[in-house]
Amino acid sequence: MRVIKTGDITNAVIELCKEACCNVTTDMYKAFKKAQIDEKSPLGRDILGKLIENADIARADQTPICQDTGMAVVFVEVGQDVHIDGGYIEDAINEGIAKGYTDGYLRKSVVAEPIFNRVNTKNNTPAVIHTRIVPGDKLKIKVCPKGFGSENKSILKMLVPADGLEGVKKVFLDAVKLAGPNACPPMVIGVGIGGTMEKAAILAKKAAVRSVDSYNEHSDYKNLEIELSELANKTGVGPQGLGGTTTVFKVNVEWYPTHIAGLPVAVNINCHAARHADVTL
Where are the domains of the chain? Predict the structure, then answer.
């Protein structure tokens, strides 16, 4: 049994908030550079150059990549041989979010209640926390600040098996076209297929913050990732929606077994920054 203090969790989350909001990940930065070379539109190349410049300034000055520093989505993997000491793990995470956003001068964008009392909580809490119990004695935390220009363009459809692969492609392309310029393309898009309604959505969210250098281990889904990326880039939406051949940097797909009568499909869209940072304790 390994003991992890809640104070260490809070301190880790504080730093992850700042890291994710101010520093484009290495794989994303490389994707910016490659897209600038490959982009066919002169305007698109110019826009990609400005995105690179923005990322450079954010890293150098440790200032947010974007003014919308998002609602914090946190994926937690707790080893079954870990004991959390000092309090409740979600309280520790939310304390880290509050301090990270306050100390890091990150915009607070969370309201306490969605319809009747939309008053800002003033510290960007609570986070949306997804926790899994996994083998081992480690604790992995991934903080993913999710801006709502992209989140608002995400889609969930409950297809039937007869809709098949073509139905999945249609849902995906409809989402890309609906997003247009509003999700700050080029985008990273996560697609979740299978499970139930909520499982598909969580799969899509996880896929949206997977490295753009990675591919699904299943060859059919790897090929689907490639095909969906190509389909999106043929739409002509382009960088910042002003036309071009780079509408997405990457499409990542995650899947799960499902019911004989179902084919849930979720599409979760990330802006060009696709912000996330993780640590293992």
Answer: 2-20+65-146, 149-275
Q: What residues pair up with 230 in beta bridges, in sequence order?
A: none
Q: Which pLDDT score, from 0 to 100, does residue 1 have?
A: 87
CA dist., res. 14 & res. 11, Å (int): 5
- 30-40 in b/e form (b: 16+ CB < 10 A) is ebbeebbeebe
Query: Which listed CATH number (1.10.287, 3.30.350, 3.30.1330, 2.60.40) goes with 149-275?
Result: 3.30.1330
Condensed to tens digits (0 to 9), the pLDDT of residues 72-115 reads 999 999 999 999 999 999 999 999 999 999 999 999 999 999 99
Query: How many Å separate Cα 77 from the centre of its chain?
Result: 17
